[in-house]
Write a structure and sequence with these properties.
Layout (H helix, E strand, L loop, with lengths): L1 E7 L10 E8 L7 E8 L14 H16 L5 E7 L6 H19 L6 E8 L24 E3 L10 E5 L11 E8 L5 H11 L14 H18 L28 H8 L13
Parallel strand pairs: 1-4, 4-5
Antiparallel strand pairs: 1-2, 2-3, 5-8, 6-7, 7-8
Length: 280
């Protein structure tokens, strides 16, 4: 199973609006159809947002159950693409979330221990790739789609690489950077490169290859949709710095003692649509 996860923090000035996380997982052997799980965690507007998805164990467990109900077999490998993590947070996030994935598997069956490959995808960097000979570039002058750089400008101790997976239309491409933090599947580097590159071609909104793998894109779309549901829900979160919160004119003030479970119930998709790509 191929999974993608993202955690969207509230913007500055949104007060005590909770953080929204999304997990998507492939539901077929082609990794083209995905199901969704949504998570919510409370944040304090005065504190730094934590990138950890606290409900990871529950979300992964539900996703594995949905996979078994759809495919009628248990996945023996979990390939996990994570977005929204900076380099200074790698170790902390990896320890918590990989452990949560393993606990989710053991909660289903005590002997169920699929191999996990945990990869972080980054787009917020300033690295650009250029061709030495203009004849080697594409028609916009960028490096060809599928170009991988895994030495020279990468870490000498960690498994990381740059992949330019899309063809530039205008301007200079920004390659995505990938950090393989855990690889219990012992994939050869070339296999990781090819898998990541191929996943950039199954994005349903576009007939071309995109800049990051489809599961990562889908998780980002799912968090955006959940945040939109939250903005239009019955809750109206106050702002800690005096700024007005984003809400509809019909929104009601937040109730005392509102729980994460109540908010999650409001923004989660219906059971009939959890197995569908409703955010496309």
């Amino acid at each position: 199973i191929v999974m993608g996860a993202d955690n969207a923090a509230p913007a500055q000035g949104e007060g005590r609006r909770p953080s929204v996380a999304a997990l998507v997982g492939s539901m077929d052997k082609f990794a083209c159809r995905y199901a969704t799980q949504i998570g919510v965690q409370q944040t304090d507007g005065k504190k730094v947002h934590s990138p950890i998805i606290e409900s990871m164990e529950t979300m992964v467990k539900n996703m594995l159950i949905k996979f078994y109900q759809t495919v009628r077999t248990k996945p023996q490998r979990i390939i996990f693409y994570r977005d929204g993590v900076s380099e200074g947070q790698f170790h902390h996030v990896m320890l918590y979330e990989v452990d949560a994935i393993k606990k989710a598997c053991l909660s289903l069956e005590k002997t169920y221990k699929p191999a996990v490959t945990y990869i972080v995808c980054q787009k917020r960097h300033h690295t650009r790739l250029y061709v030495q000979n203009p004849r080697d570039g594409d028609r916009s002058g960028n490096v060809p789609a599928g170009t991988v750089v895994d030495q020279g400008i990468t870490s000498t101790t960690d498994f990381d690489f740059y992949l330019n997976s899309h063809q530039g239309i205008q301007g200079t491409n920004k390659p995505a950077k990938y950090h393989v933090l855990v690889d219990e599947n012992n994939f050869p580097p070339d296999m990781v490169y090819k898998l990541t590159y191929h996943l950039c071609h199954v994005y349903a909104r576009c007939t071309r290859a995109v800049s990051i793998p489809a599961p990562t894109y889908y998780a980002h779309l799912a968090t955006d949709r959940a945040r939109a549901h939250l903005s239009n829900s019955k809750y109206n979160f106050d702002s800690s710095d005096g700024a007005s919160s984003v809400s509809s004119s019909t929104a009601r003030p937040p109730r005392q003692g509102q729980s994460v479970a109540e908010i999650l119930r409001d923004i989660s998709p219906h059971d009939a649509t959890k197995n569908k790509m409703y955010w496309i």
